[in-house]
Design goal:
Mean pLDDT: 78
Low-confidence stretches: 33-122
Number of helices: 8
Largest sheet: 6 strands, antiparallel
Structural class: alpha+beta
Strand order of the largest sheet: 2-10-4-7-5-6
CATH superfamily of one domain: Ribosomal protein S10
CATH topology of one domain: Alpha-Beta Plaits
Radius of gyration: 29 Å
Distance between the termini: 78 Å
């Protein structure tokens, strides 16, 4: 081998080594950037960095087509991220006023001295306010009658998001749902709007409309209004919505006949009734929990729904069991029960349990879906939205 060839080999080896080192350095740098971009924040359980508006996502229905659930794995008593009002922040003239606070219209409209705001009793419970999923407006009512809220109460029901009216009656220690037709006087009222649901995140126009309605009402009756910051609320709404899209999964198991046959609906109805399922007005069987909430549902593949009295010998191409993942408490146990029931139906009708692509569901396939469910439930727990909790039922409605 000549000196020239040896030299070329040395130079070539040096170039290859340099390229490998350069690629290694670049890979490390990009990996660090990716880790930083997708790292879960600590301060806010739902404020994720990924920005994927709900308009770009569709709910997964069903998830048994080798489902891809993502790479990340009430407002109830004791749940995290629930903030409570102090109960007195609007009671006096020195109350702290938030960014969007609306002052009294003018001195001429000031409340007479005999109707000055009543101080909250020392034992008064704070107003329940779920900071994670609600926007809040507070009203200092000065002992106003409940009927002054009638028009605003009705108008806020048309804004497209769930609204709660909570009031602290004069001299009371506990808050209650405001009922404008009642003979009651309130010293404080809190009005909340839910920030997200299955229709998407709340819009700025909806929050503004809420505050406009309340402002007109408070000005007309000489009351005081303080609305929470809209910018912060809209950011929270988008974060909640992104999280909900990622975990909003509907699982379906199908029981179909083998070959060119059909399944016997009479037997299926009998099995559904024997396991405690209830037939709804829409012709769908549901297994309900103690709260009356569905655990899973059974529907007919054919256009004709289930009837109260099944016709002997009636058949169908198949039936589907459906499981609404984020709305079911103790979901893994319920999923196992639905799988067992599906296998029972298949055995009783001589059918087979399949996914939506008509592929038989083996133990391995069921276990894979179960592991994905476990991952979803862990994510929901970590973000303060346990599956089947009151908060989860509100978000996934």
């Amino acid at each position: 081998m000549s000196d020239l060839q040896i030299g070329l080999l040395i130079v070539g080896g040096a170039v290859v080594a340099a390229v490998l080192v350069f690629n290694w350095i670049q890979e490390r740098r990009f990996r660090k950037q990716a880790d930083a971009a997708f790292q879960m924040p600590v301060a806010d359980a739902l404020m994720q960095d990924d920005a994927r508006p709900r308009a770009m996502h569709e709910r997964v229905e069903p998830a048994l087509r080798e489902p891809v659930l993502g790479d990340d794995g009430e407002s109830g008593v004791g749940e995290p991220h629930v903030r409570f009002d102090t109960g007195t922040s609007l009671a006096g003239d020195d109350a702290d006023v938030p960014v969007n606070a609306v002052p009294a219209p003018n001195p001429a409209a000031a409340v007479p001295s005999e109707r000055r705001p009543a101080s909250s009793p020392s034992g008064a419970a704070p107003a329940p306010y779920d900071e994670l999923i609600e926007y809040r407006a507070r009203i200092g009512c000065d002992g106003a009658m409940a009927n002054v809220f009638v028009d605003a109460f009705n108008q806020t029901r048309t804004l497209g998001k769930a609204i709660r009216w909570l009031g602290l009656p004069v001299g009371a220690t506990a808050w209650e749902d405001v009922q404008p037709w009642r003979d009651a006087r309130y010293q404080q009222v809190a009005v909340t709007m839910q920030l997200a649901d299955r229709n998407g995140a709340v819009q700025e126009e909806q929050l503004a409309a809420l505050c406009d309605v309340l402002q007109a009402m408070t000005q007309a009756h000489g009351l005081r209004l303080a609305c929470d910051d809209m910018v912060d609320a809209l950011e929270r709404a988008q974060a909640i919505d992104r999280f909900c899209v990622d975990v909003d999964v509907l699982i379906g198991l199908n029981v179909v006949a083998r070959g060119e046959g059909a399944v016997n609906l009479t037997r299926i109805v009998r099995e559904a009734e024997s396991c405690g399922m209830v037939l709804g007005g829409d012709g769908v069987f549901q297994l309900l929990d103690s709260r009356g909430e569905p655990l899973y549902a059974l529907c007919n593949h054919d256009a004709e729904p289930f009837a109260v009295e099944a016709v002997e010998g009636q058949t169908s191409q198949g039936v589907t069991l459906q499981f609404d993942v984020p709305r079911v408490p103790d979901g893994l146990k319920v999923f196992d029960g639905m799988v067992a029931f599906g296998r029972t139906l298949a055995n009783e009708t001589g059918g087979i349990l399949v996914d939506d692509n008509l592929r038989p569901l083996t133990d391995t396939g069921i276990e894979k879906i179960r592991n994905q469910l476990m991952h979803i439930y862990e994510r929901m727990e970590a973000r303060g939205v346990p599956s089947g909790s009151r908060r989860s039922l509100r978000l996934f409605s």
